[in-house]
Design brief:
The protein is α/β, with parallel strands linked by helices. The chain has two domains: 162 residues, Leucine Aminopeptidase, subunit E, domain 1 (3-Layer(aba) Sandwich); 316 residues, 3-Layer(aba) Sandwich (Aminopeptidase). The chain is built from 14 helices and 18 strands. Strands 7, 8, 9, 10, 11, 14, 15, 16 and 18 form a nine-stranded mixed β-sheet that branches. It has a six-stranded mixed β-sheet with strand order 1-6-5-2-4-3, sandwiched between helices. Strands 12-13-17 form a three-stranded mixed β-sheet, with helices on one face. The protein is elongated and about 80 Å long. The two termini are 30 Å apart. The protein binds ligand BES and zinc ion (ZN) (2 copies).
Length: 497
């Protein structure tokens, strides 16, 4: 998709559709920001169908005045409401613009930035670009015989009109990096598990290293055996494809800069293993790699944006979790990377096994100043928070606060749940240092309590995205399917570091 900034008179635009964003006035009709379109818009508003309420849309087909026809056939007005306009208001407005556009045949759009809403033009351009690009996402790779009448339109070109081109261009660049990273994460997650295997994370990492100047190291099975990454190896036992652990390093060039470690669960399919999941809905477990996809996508964004003042290491441990003749069995004991032994009571609690190894390896190898892991870890987080908030657990209040702020700013809200020694008792095993599950109680907390054993004293935040990685809160800029949650939160965190 092409996207750029223009300062040319919007009334002269000759693409398929012009999009305007308007506040809802206390009285009367919303004000049209493009004088050349004011008459036509006022005429359309006379229908009484549009007040400018948040999320409201009005599509009309303007007819130009005598001798001065308008350049475009369609105009779309999006309401911003009467409350304070925030980043999220604009993202949602961008998403609404896409939803309405994709019902038409329009592919080339001009969006007129609302520059008088009390936010810096940079922020307006950034948020609107995010909403527009995120909302334009579609995945039809495997639909080859669909009825042309049923296929939604696709957006090929977006121009942002601004009177302040420099600021708008800077905002667009930021919004674009973030939204395109989310596209990448959604693409990975949409791929079926028979295509997107652990080897694909490795290949993506290697390609990224070449194209965006990162360092990539891929640990394969022989390296894992040598290093003792036995949690990842144990979960992989039932699968016929080998595991991978992809390590990407972004270096900002400043020696003394702090290092942030990001670890994402890259389970390309979770059947539960010998502790097999029920069949209904099991196909959704191809999404069990959304944490890994988020980390990879953030690394791509960092490679493109090259922020200063922080080094970032991204690690994605990846395998399938399947039953098979060699599969891990309930009751088996495994020695993880940091030497701790685990009794595997339930092979479906596999995410914590592979993350434990990746966290312990990452902490020992890179000595990071802070660690954030992101994983579709527990069904219990859906019971606790539904699909509207990501579960956040942390051993450090300051880091937790930073991640919560980043999540709010990104429009991906999180909610902190507690940790504590009282919960650790629930993971006591008769035969090993700890077991991987207990009874159902406090399932999300127990997942985090387990992981905490593998980060030593490093400040650490765990994001449980099982409820938000797909089937997320319905939002105009988040189509059905994987949401790419976490990509923009982690990017906001790095940018503010
Ligand atoms: N990948 C699942 C968690 C999950 C469930 C993600 C539903 C998204 C939607 C994870 O590996 C898992 O199976 N967790 C178990 C843990 C239990 C055995 C302690 C669960 O949540 O049931
Ligand atoms: Zn599982
Ligand atoms: Zn899982």
């Amino acid at each position: 998709m092409k996207i750029s900034v223009s300062t040319k008179d919007p009334a002269a635009y000759t693409g398929d559709m012009i999009i305007l964003f308007v506040r809802q006035p206390a009285k009367g009709q919303p004000v049209c920001p493009v004088p050349g379109l004011a008459k036509a818009m006022a005429q359309a508003c006379l229908s009484g169908d549009f007040q400018g309420r948040e999320g409201q849309t009005l599509l009309f087909y303007p007819i130009g005045g005598k001798g001065r026809p308008l350049g475009t056939r369609r105009a779309l007005v999006i309401g911003l409401g009467k409350d304070e306009v925030k980043r999220e208001t604009l993202r949602q407005a961008g998403g609404s613009a896409c939803c309405a556009t994709m019902k038409t045949k329009a592919t080339k759009l001009l969006a007129v930035l609302p520059e008088d809403v009390g936010l810096a033009v940079l922020v307006v351009a950034e948020s609107l670009a995010e909403g527009l690009i995120l909302g334009a996402y579609q995945f039809h790779k495997y639909q080859k015989f669909t009825d042309p009448d049923e296929t939604p339109g696709a957006i090929s070109e977006i121009t942002l009109f601004s009177s302040r081109a420099t600021e708008a261009r800077r905002g667009l660049a930021r919004g674009r990096v973030a939204a395109e990273a989310a596209w990448v994460a959604r693409d990975m997650a949409n791929e079926p598990a028979n295509y997107w295997t652990p080897a694909h994370f490795a290949r993506f990492g290697r390609d990224l290293a070449k194209s965006d100047g990162l360092k990539c190291t891929v640990l394969g099975k022989p390296e894992m055996i040598k290093l003792g990454l036995n949690g990842l190896l144990a979960i992989n036992q039932g699968s016929s494809v080998p595991p991978t652990m992809t390590v990407l390093e972004y270096r900002c060039g400043t020696k003394k800069a702090p290092t942030l470690l990001l670890v994402g669960k890259g389970l390309t399919f979770d059947s539960g293993g010998i502790s097999l999941k029920p069949g209904v809905g099991m196909e959704e477990m191809k999404y069990d790699m959304c944490g890994g996809a988020a980390v990879m996508a953030v690394m791509q964004a960092l490679g493109r944006e090259r922020p200063r003042g922080v080094n970032v290491v991204g690690i994605v441990p990846s395998t399938e979790n399947l039953p098979g003749p060699a599969a891990l069995k309930p009751g088996d004991v495994v020695t993880l990377y940091n030497g701790k032994t685990v009794e595997v009571v339930n092979t479906d609690a596999e995410g914590r096994m592979i993350l434990a190894d990746a966290l312990a390896y990452g902490v020992a190898t890179f000595k990071p100043d802070a660690v954030v892991d992101i994983a579709t870890l527990t069904g219990a987080v859906i019971v606790a928070l539904g699909h509207h908030r990501t579960g956040l657990l942390a051993n450090d209040d300051a880091l937790a606060a930073r991640v919560l702020t980043a999540a709010d700013e990104a429009g991906e809200p999180a909610w902190r749940l507690p940790l504590g020694p009282e919960y650790r008792k629930q993971l006591k095993s008769q035969v090993a240092d700890l077991k991987n599950v207990d009874k159902r109680d406090a399932g999300t907390i127990l997942g985090a309590v387990f992981l905490q054993e593998f980060v030593a004293e490093t400040p650490w935040v765990h994001l449980d995205i099982a409820g938000t990685a797909w089937n997320y809160t319905e939002k105009s800029y988040i189509p059905k399917g994987p949401s790419a949650v976490g990509v923009r939160t982690l990017l906001a965190l790095v940018r503010s570091y």
